Amino acid sequence: MNLFHIGSELRRFGTGKFPLATVFVLILIPLLFGGLFVWSYWDPASRVKDLPVALVNSDEGAKINGQDVNVGQNVVDTLIDSGRVEFEQVDPDAALKGVKDGTYYFAIEVPKDFSQAVATVQETGTPDRTTLTALFNNANGYLGAVMGNTIVSNVVKNIDSLLGSQVTARLLVGYSTVPDPAAPPENPSAAEGTWSIAEGIDRLDDGAHQLADGSEQLKDGVGQANDGVGALADGLKQLQGATDKLGDGAGEVADGVRQVQENAEQLAGKQKLLASALVDIDTGLREIGTPEAMKLADQTKGLIDAIKEGQDPESLEKLQLLAAGAAEVQRQLLDPQADYRGGLIKVQGGTDRLKNGTQQLFDASEQLTVGTRQLADGTTQLAEGTDRMVVAASMLSDGLVELGTDGSQLALQVAGGDADKPEQATSTNPGLPLSGMGLAPIFISMGLFVGATTTYMVFRPLQRRVIESGAAPFKVVMASFLPTVIIGLAQATVMYLVQHFALGLEAHRGLGLLAAMYLWSITAMAIAQGLNAIFGVALGRTLGMALMTLQMVSSGGLYPAETQPAPLRWFHTFDPMTYSVNLMRQMIFETDLSVDHRMWISLAVLVGILVLFLLGSTFAAARERQIKYQEFRPQVTV
Length: 638
Hints:
By secondary structure, this protein is an alpha/beta fold. Helices cover 68% and strands 6% of the residues.
């Protein structure tokens, strides 16, 4: 018997209408997942324009530049004219009723003070805070709410383009849900309290920014004072140097005065000696008494008088005072113990300490500036955080939220344009894929696995006739496996054609995607055959359905495996569908295979799983053959 002989298993479906129809249905069954699901989720964002949404304008208007205007109505008209969503302007009662009964997926209300908030821009430059309310109903579906959040973000973006970022920077979006009849009524004072907290935090934020500005001014002032003290210290050092030079000059003056004084004193002594000698001569001449002697005595007397006139005691006293004064000036200028020099040294030391102090004060003022800026940033973040606590219902006295005050509300902050800049995932591929394109790997994998499981509900995992013929166990496995492989390849081919031509899936590696689908289909057939052969048809089919569900949630095809519970994260590594999803992603999207090795890993793992389950089926075939042999040759006969 040829190892790869298909045998009669497939030929038994070749006669009659119903067997052929069965094969046709088996080929098309994977399209329920790989075709219908992908088509359904291919590009839902392009059909958001058909989503019914209620618009409520509660704006009471305001005077802007002396004219009565209703900015809220302008916003509503702009949104309706945009055609991006099926907006319908209704009153609050109709909006609330429509969200409750499912007529509208959600409702958006422009607050009554919206125009007034816009008017304050021109009056104060800063608009009042106001709240744009979005009302949802959990019964309308989770994804509807997710899409609604995106729509609300686009609404804020439209408001930003229409009115400017000054308005949207102070705009809150209040997200509310319809009332739960079983829930206790909310305490409105709590919501009012959150607004009080928010306003207080805003004032704190303003104060922190003022403090930061003041610290900047303080730093500048201290810097100027520090520069002035430095200049004073430098000037005192120059004064000290000049004083030293002046002291040296005063010493030279004192020395000169002392020299003059000594010379004057010596001259005065010599004058006294000369005068005394002349007096003796005058006395002697007068004792002689001759006319000539008397005449000579008179001349001597004149010399004595002249010498006496030349002697000036006051001049000597002045020279003494001058010498003493010069010495005192020198002492004051040079002696550290003197009042002047000692005071100058103290002033110099004080200015040095003052300079060090002002430098420390300047450094501290810089730290204060940094700290106050951090404080201002922190209070800004705190203000934004408290804005998230604010409940939209507490701001309005009528409209949607008033009608739903007994429900739970959650206010989210969109100040600073956060809502009109929704986060987007970045990709190494040129452009983000459509949602259907991104989900295609998991749905294709699920479809082909369902196709394999269903195929072995029609085909026998092991043919009794082949077992009884005495064929080798692996030949027994191939006799049932190869016909299902043909069915699996047909399933994968049809699914690929539908993906490519009907849905427009343009894979980066088109033939690679087809080959990946072939490999996964063959592997899924081996898994289905192995489960049915090892555990029996009933239990094997049940395990196959259970394994399909477990593979789907653990593969990472819908949500990243890291977001799953711990048991599913553990199974993710062993999940065959993990590697089929990774392999198909590598084929659909442009990846650098020299860096991203998941394609090679997936190929190796899938081939390994294929071989493993074929070996399991071979073991089951050998077991069945042993049982049949014992039935024909019983060890004990009766």
